[in-house]
Amino acid sequence: MSTIADTRDVLDLLTDRRGNPAPMQVIHDAATADRSGTAPWCDHTRDRLARAIDLPGSLYRIDRDDLQNTDTTWYCALRRHGRSHLLTDREWSAVGTHVLRAAGLAGRPDSSDCPWILVRENLDTVHLIASLVAFHEEPREVDNSRVLAECRELADVLTRLADADPHIPREADVVLVAAHPDRFVTLAAHNKDIAAHIRDLAWIPGPRYEDTWYHSPFGAGPSEITDLARATRHRLTAAGYIVRVDPALGVTRSAQAHSRITHPTQGSRRHTITPDAPGVALAPAVATPRRRR
Q: Are both 148 and 237 inside the same structural domain?
């Protein structure tokens, strides 16, 4: 972590790095009006971002008749913890938001957020660059100890998720959707075929259990988590699976309100769909006797 006077200096430093497996990408832009997603790393992009981040500090110095080259930009490099999963651009943006709030540069109820960007160097490393000045405000002081404490907490959360007991069900047609203590939702199944049914949903494959254990993206809000659980249950129920959703997720049971529904599958085998049972998803699955029809 460091402070600098000119954002272009740190952007040029990133450009001069060697041995990158892929070109750098701007994965979060809270500095300019362009919020179209990732941006290529080129001279035009660097100039535009540097001007946007430096603008509040430049206006502050002009207003105060401050001719000194005061540091008005904050820089922090973030690296993924070794045991956590590979973070998506969206998850890195959520991590950056947490760090910015700990630094006091975003999330204040009585003031605006400072302009900031997040630049991905490779799969494990991103660079957070933010102005220390919001428009029409004084420069802010960053407490680096709070930032370090927040980074340690984020690393602990992601490590606990990676080390979580997956509770893979024994039955091939059972899927468990459970709430995780760290505000994640996990999906566990015995049958790898579920991957084809949830491929376009926001689930992220677990690092140790490919195609049988998934978790929601880091930083997803409560409504996003509920919508993900609801869409997953609807999708997999239609495919003939028994989906048991943790009651803590607040997913309504309208789609399964009637007592028993059967969905024919290929051949003569039929999957029986039962209503969600309170507490079922929080314990390892056991064999469930089925009524003969």
A: no
